[in-house]
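Appendix B. Chain record.
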Amino acid sequence: MMKKLAFIFAWIMIVTVVSAQNSKVQSALNYSKPQYNQLDKAQEAIELAIKHEKTQDKAKTWKVRGQVYQAIANSKDENFQKLSDNPLKVAFESYKKALELDEKGQLKNEISIQLKFIGVLMINKGIDYFNTKEFLKAFDVFESSLAIDEIVDPGKIDTAIIFNAGVAADQGKDFDNAIKYYKKTAELGYEGAKVYGYIANIEKDKGDTVAYVTALKDGISAYPADNTILRVELINYYLNKGMSDLALEYLAKAIEKDPTNHTFYFAQGALYDELKDFENAKASYEKAVEINPEYFDAYYNLGVLYFNKGADMLKEANNIPPNEQKKYDAAVKESFKELEKALPALEKAHALDPTDKPILLTLKEIYFKLRNDKEEYMTKYKEFNEKIKNLPEEK
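Structure tokens predicted for this chain:
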């Protein structure tokens, strides 16, 4: 009889312990209700419940924990806001755990509704974090909101949040996740060619030039009608690397897509100039100023192109032996003709920027060399000599 009583007593003790732990869950639920609003006590109770072996594997325990932390996230009370650094994420993870433990799916509908609410809150919170430049926190909640979508609405694709997750990670220097979400954005065709530019910039910062160039080329291929920024980036890369042939190739494609872009012709002219291809350089510069008659750089380069040709011809003339005076005089005369051809472009450049000293010096030199050919050139030489003297002193 005593053994039987002892068994009954032990059974009563077990029931009492389980009941006590279940009451922790219920207490947490009650404390979190608006009419009681004792979230500190709710948190304390539910944290005890998830650690106890009798209640830690119950779906309801984790559902209530989700509700408690959801209430903390919604609270306007500063004291309650301090209870958790990221209550929305804790709420999400708790609901997720509850779904895993809810084998019969009895809580699925109820939890799904709450997860949708949390997803909206997370997006709003992510925007707040982004505006306060807490980029990694913004990324964390954006990513969590996407994870919620996978649970409650598997077919949903929120391209804007995928993109924003990439931007937040990028700004927070989490480059691996930035690339991950930018690539997802690109796969979905969202935000156009510029996403490839973002990927390229990250790869460039990481020092991976192969991935950098690949990203640019992928973007150019994906958006053949709208890739100007990517083409310019790739052209500049080839220019900086001295890969003139590839730069010219992409410039030609860029001009084909945008034949009225004067900067493309200017870059093309500069490349041909560097390659000592006078005729093509001249044609490109002339096309640039035809499109934009106020383009200082193109006028300047066109004038210098003629000037350098004339200067090179003059050097060759100086190599003619003294006993070949006629040949020398003829060669000098031809070089001066080339120098004279530089004047219209350089004068136009001077008109656009009257204080540019290199232009003034170049014009002065040309007029000096031509001073004996025409009286007006002697006058011009004196004029530009005075202009240079009157320039303000450089600081």
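Further analysis of this model is presented in Appendix C.
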